[in-house]
Amino acid sequence: MISQRIGFIGGGQMGQALARGFLQSGLTAGEQLAVCDPSAAAVEQFQSQAPGAVVCADKAELAARSEVIVLAVKPQYMPQVLKELAALPTEDCLVMSIAAGVTLAVLEKDSGAQRVIRVMPNTPCLVGQGAAGFAKGSGATAADGQLVQQLLESVGIAFELPETLLDAVTGLSGSGPAFVYAMIEALSDGGVRMGLPRHVAAQLAAQTVAGAAAMVLETGEHPAVLKDRVASPGGTTIAGLQTLEDYRVRAGLIASVQSATLRSQELGRS
């Protein structure tokens, strides 16, 4: 268990997922967590996911009781949040932002905080299967990085990277779940096309993707090696793989990650 108290500015789904992960992994107790959000519904939902969490009336109260402040608000709200944060004594706080596209330079300049870490999580952290990247600001210490790694790994996996690579993380694991959902939908449609009931096809498709992903993660083997083990000479799988190549599915997925990355870079500049 860690000793730090963690305050969430923003009690939405991502904040709730992180708080729940911290508790379920045993990293924190409920009373170590706090939330501040103008939405009573969001606060109520946050407390349902993180029993024992303290509700703070404002950001000043939250900052006063927290060693780590998680900025879990949408990017469009960040300018106002950072302005308010700059007026508070945060010299001893680690500020961790999960807002997409808000750079370390902006976070450091506008928040007034000396120790800042930028995180790019993804929505599967809601079910404890997240994939995240993070980058330390100029004032963040090695211990800060270790703490954030520990926190993020309570809801999935995490990698410390240079900030210049966080847009690629956004393009791959940030946007990637949507690409996988499209694949699951298409596989399911293929099953229905060939006569399977819809509910059966959907569950078979989703479990197939989950199982294949688990094989990659648990064996540590290259996906190409695992693919070749399924594809018998002259069999059904190699016939299907040939069709994927004919329709340039691999090229489309590579291009999708590239497009999402470039769009993330554009949003960061704007």
From TrEMBL:
Pathway: Amino-acid biosynthesis; L-proline biosynthesis; L-proline from L-glutamate 5-semialdehyde: step 1/1
The UniProt record lists the keyword Transferase: no
Main location: cytoplasm
Domain annotation Pyrroline-5-carboxylate reductase dimerisation: ranges: 163-267
GO molecular function: pyrroline-5-carboxylate reductase activity
InterPro entries with a match to the protein in the record: 6-PGluconate_DH-like_C_sf, NAD(P)-bd_dom_sf, P5C_Rdtase_cat_N, P5CR-like_CS, P5CR_dimer, Pyrroline-COOH_reductase
SUPFAM superfamilies: 6-phosphogluconate dehydrogenase C-terminal domain-like, NAD(P)-binding Rossmann-fold domains
EC number: 1.5.1.2
Binding-site residues, NADP(+): I9, G10, G11, G12, Q13, M14, A72, V73, K74, P75
An annotated GO cellular component: cytoplasm
Alphabetic keyword roster: Amino-acid biosynthesis, Cytoplasm, NADP, Oxidoreductase, Proline biosynthesis
Domain Pyrroline-5-carboxylate reductase catalytic N-terminal: 5-101
UniProt-annotated location(s): Cytoplasm
Pfam families recorded: F420_oxidored, P5CR_dimer
Gene3D superfamilies: NAD(P)-binding Rossmann-like Domain, ProC C-terminal domain-like
Reactions catalysed according to its record: L-proline + NAD(+) = (S)-1-pyrroline-5-carboxylate + NADH + 2 H(+); L-proline + NADP(+) = (S)-1-pyrroline-5-carboxylate + NADPH + 2 H(+)
GO biological process: L-proline biosynthetic process
Secreted as UniProt keyword: no
Role played: Catalyzes the reduction of 1-pyrroline-5-carboxylate (PCA) to L-proline.
Protein family: Belongs to the pyrroline-5-carboxylate reductase family.
Protein name per its UniProtKB record: Pyrroline-5-carboxylate reductase
Native species: Lignipirellula cremea
